[in-house]
Specification:
mainly alpha; 83% helix
Length: 404
């Protein structure tokens, strides 16, 4: 958290809001397309891991990993070819500003971004949880921060997006090299398994739809702000959005630990242990997030002012987003539970419905309310899918994922 916000502070106090907005636009695009590129395999690999552990055949995971990388490469190439076929002027006309080149270079980095995001979850799947989180939350930000300092020293501020994307290439190569080394040390004692490309796609597909819907809900507000406003407004709103990551990071960290365990316990029909695990995880999440929510809500103007005087304009948006995050924390690990217990099809329907609501609200509210409208759309859709999922889990499994 300190490293992430240290970099954000450095960016907002060193670069013009226009440049920061271009970076946030590229970040939102690669998050969204990355959700398509990784095709839910960063979640399904955790399911396969738990399933293989329950059957004492963990070494087969390396075969699944190779097939997943090939699928990612195929999707990335198809998206790049499609982007090259799109008329550049039509993209610029949609956003009412020249963004096609920025859009294209972001897509060109998609394969490496997707592989990196897969790799850090594969590390979780092979019980390298600490290393996974070090790469996810430390090394990648350290690499990006170092690159940012270099371009400032050489007065190359316009390279900000390039450094951001180059960092994912380096991270993908580093993590892939480590996994290759790790897999070479494992044996081949799982010849009875034969999980095909079709099996991976069938399992990952619903998770991919859910992941894309969830990521799009996190990025469609920034993308539509880029269309209806300017990059400066995008920068202001994105800072508020990143501050709420203080809250969501706790839930993501808890999820990173319990996801394979949920799959393992559910596959082994150890329901009592599963209930206990979920209850403890939700309570831990709530205890750790409530202080952050209260501090951010009470001191929002002061905290935003640290990023620059102009960024105080996002104080109302930040407060609205915090309400959504509070409900998110209260409901617990609903998404992970659904994906790890074979309910990914239902979860994708819930998220698609919430996404439709999110897009409609963004289109209606942003032109009238600006960044406050984007925050309202995001918070309402987040509350909607959390409450629907909590209700469904309790109705079907009698499991209380919410804090109690």
């Amino acid at each position: 958290m300190l490293l992430f916000f240290g970099i954000t502070l450095y960016l907002t106090n060193t670069f013009e809001p226009e440049q920061v907005g271009r970076y946030d636009f590229s970040r939102s695009i690669i998050m969204f397309l990355g959700g398509i590129g990784i095709f839910g395999m960063h979640q399904s690999v955790l399911y396969f891991s738990g399933y293989l552990k329950a059957n004492r055949s963990e070494s087969y995971l390396k075969v699944i990993y190779k097939k997943m990388v090939i699928i990612i490469f195929t999707i990335a190439i198809l998206i790049l070819l499609l982007a090259l076929l799109i008329n550049s002027s039509s993209v610029d006309a949609f956003f009412d500003k020249p963004v096609y080149n920025l859009f294209l270079k972001t897509i060109a980095s998609l394969f490496f971004y997707s592989v990196f995001m897969l790799n850090i979850d594969v590390l979780r799947a092979v019980d390298r949880i600490y290393l996974s989180e070090v790469y996810r939350n430390l090394i990648r930000y350290f690499g990006f921060g170092t690159g940012v300092i270099i371009i400032v020293i050489f007065n190359k501020d316009h390279w900000l997006v390039d450094i951001f994307l180059l960092n994912f290439i380096v991270m993908a190569l580093l993590t892939t090299a480590y996994l290759i080394f790790l897999f070479r040390k494992t044996g081949n004692d799982s010849t009875g398994f034969a999980i095909s490309y079709k099996d991976i796609i069938k399992r990952s597909g619903p998770m991919a739809v859910s992941a894309v819907a969830y990521i799009l809900m996190q990025s469609v507000d920034v993308i539509l702000l880029s269309k209806f406003t300017d990059f400066s407004q995008v920068a202001f709103y994105s800072v508020a959005l990143k501050l709420t990551m203080l809250v969501s990071l706790v839930l993501a960290s808890v999820n990173s630990v319990i996801a394979p365990k949920i799959s393992e316990l559910f596959s082994a029909y150890r329901i009592k242990e599963l209930n206990s695990l979920i209850r403890k995880a939700t309570r831990l999440t709530l205890v750790l997030t409530l202080p952050a929510i209260i501090i951010l809500a009470l001191l929002n103007s002061y905290i935003l002012n640290i990023f620059g005087e102009e960024y105080v304009l996002a104080k109302t948006a930040l407060f609205i987003l915090l309400i959504g995050q509070m409900v998110n924390a209260f409901c617990g690990s609903v998404g992970v539970y659904m994906n790890m217990t074979g309910k990914q099809n239902v979860f994708q329907i819930i998220l698609i419905a919430a996404l439709v609501v999110n897009i409609i609200l963004n289109v209606l509210l942003i032109p009238e309310m600006g960044i406050e409208g984007a925050a309202l759309a995001t918070a309402i859709s987040m509350i909607l899918w959390n409450l629907l999922t909590v209700a469904y889990i309790y109705k079907t499994d009698k499991v209380k994922t919410f804090a109690h």
